[in-house]
Amino acid sequence: MEVPANQGGRRLPIYLLLDCSGSMEGAPIQAVQMGVEMFAREIRQDPFVAETVHVGIITFASTAQMVTNGLVPIDQFQPPQLSAGGNTSLGAALRLLQQSLDRDLRVGKTTEKQIGNR
């Protein structure tokens, strides 16, 4: 189980990588905007999920950027206003995601039941 660094309890990290390049101009970026807003509304309706979900948003066009300040609890999450333009820099977004995973998450310790040796 992975949990946000420096956080106690059970957490479910969710990263959204959003293409905001020029190819997304018009209806496509509006659909992504509505999808992010619907995601936030739906997640907040489930009490268990609302207590565990932490969200990170990475947008990418000519460059990639973390829109949220690392992982934020869903009750503090505000969907960003999206606009389209520039080239598609998916590689930069994936590198930023890897950096974020390294910074924000740690692998939780697992306990295993020992079965007697014969």
What does it look like?
By secondary structure, this protein is an alpha+beta fold. It has a single domain, classed as Rossmann fold, CATH 3.40.50. It is built from 3 helices and 6 strands; from the N terminus they run E-E-H-H-E-E-E-H-E. Strands 2, 3, 4 and 5 form a 4-stranded mixed beta sheet that branches. The protein has a two-stranded antiparallel sheet with strand order 1-6. The longest helix is centred in the first third of the chain and has 19 residues, at 27-45. The protein is flat.
How much β-strand is present in the residues?
15-25%
Going by CATH, the architecture would be 3-Layer(aba) Sandwich
Q: Structural class, from secondary structure content?
A: alpha+beta
Task: Find the CATH superfamily.
Answer: von Willebrand factor, type A domain
The total domain count is: 1
What best-fitting shape do the alpha-carbon axes yield? flat
Would you report the number of β strands?
A: 6
Give the distance, in angstroms, between the N- and C-terminal Cα atoms: 31 Å
